[in-house]
Amino acid sequence: MAAKPLIDYQDKKILIVDDQRSFQTMLKGLLFSIGARNINFANSGESALSQCLETQFDLLFIDYNLGNGKNGRQLLEELRSKDCLAVDAIYMIVSGESTRPMVLGAVEAEPDDYLIKPFSQGLLKTRIHRVYKRKQAMKEALIALKEENYTAAIDLILAVQKEQPRYRQYCAQLLCTIYIKQKQYSLAKRLLNLEISKKRVLWALIALASIAHLNKEYNVALELCNEVLDSNRFRVEAYDIKARCLLALGETKEALKTIKQSVAISPFSFHRQHLLADIARENKAYNSLINACQSLLEMSKRSIHQDISHQLNYIRALFDAAQNSDNEPDKEHYLKETKLALRKAKTDQQLFTDTSFDTFEAMCLARLDALQGNYFDSKKSLCAVQKELEHNESELPLDLYPESIMTLLEIGEFEQAFEQLAVFKTKSDKNTDFVEAIMAEQAGNAEQKIASFDSHNKKGIEEYKKGNFSLAIEEFENALRFAPMNTGSALNLIQALLQVLQHSGSNKVELKQKCLNSFKIVEGLNLPESHFNRCKELKAEYKRINALLG
Hints:
It contains 25 helices and five strands.
């Protein structure tokens, strides 16, 4: 009697996702020859997702590169997030790409297997069977894990480990993952030390390094990472942990060098590009920061990570580079790149679902004007946005608060900037370390300007109270050099100018022009009630004095 086949392919629902019809036909033929009959096709990641939302497939063969849509890695992430995969479903990424970055990028997403085209029927069958056996052996434990029933999962994993020694290391890795997730680091370390007492396997050394990093034992973690990399220089997880430890120890340059090595080996990791962005910002390595933010933006499109924050962070990185450039040509280059990025965003608006592109563009252009020294245009743009929002009975999206805050700091409206910052910290539920760090740096950069502004403004008020109106004018003008669009100081200057204007025997034309220039700072703006009333009174006073002077 013939042995019963390991898998009854006839009752398995299979999905082949590939944008090449020739490969679909070839793989269908291979599967048909081993008994498969229920074979379905999708030409794109989007089509595959739609089918998976309707049908739970048993075997999925997904090409890594699917043209302009989701790639195989992004599709796997989304299927997991939408709970479209049964624990015993087999997900294989298939690709004609054999370059190390592409392969590592796919493998890091943890599919069940990875096949490089072309492959034979024998290899296909062997790889399916290998995964199938493991998944069937671990099925109950994997169900418990999915349900977050960790106690039951641990018992079931230990049972499999005892009964089927071939899966001992796989079981050990699952147990270690559970212990770390539950912050039971001592249990995880005990298990890992048992593993490396038999053989210093790299996955266990990496896990120990990760625990040491979490426990702030940075030097211990570094030793373990170096041991891993001495054995295999392509274990990117060790570079990542090493970079985090070096950053925590204040060795920022070495941290940047290390994370760059990791990104060069495997660039298609979201968390790795985030880490590069954070470390680059610490080093003020703006080109690396921009490249990381641009990579995050491109990788986020059509993935579960798609969010306007990546578009904003890319623009913010360009602004950050421009603002901190030592020479004018570099600054102009970054500002030009910013304009190009805005134009590109306009033609690729799938990110702008909750936030209006027009509002986003206006806020970015306001900051662009501020960085180019066009302070009046910048302030006017901010006010135009506010008026439009009020007209539509809406508020500035929290996503755009950082742009408003940083622009207000640049033009000198410090009080309003810090009021918005307080609101943002209270209300935003998407505030990232990246955005917090940029705004903290901006606030830090503004501290000296704020101190100088406050000093001159206070001296101006003191001189005004003493009746030294000319000295007061000088101090208010100095204050506005540090905060060119500050409404309060502009009104103070106007008030002092009016005092001199009505008593001075000369320079009346110059004084009038200074008044008019200062009124421009506050004209057409949504002023706080106290400033609005004061501005109204000063305008009336100016008209009265002007009429008397003839």
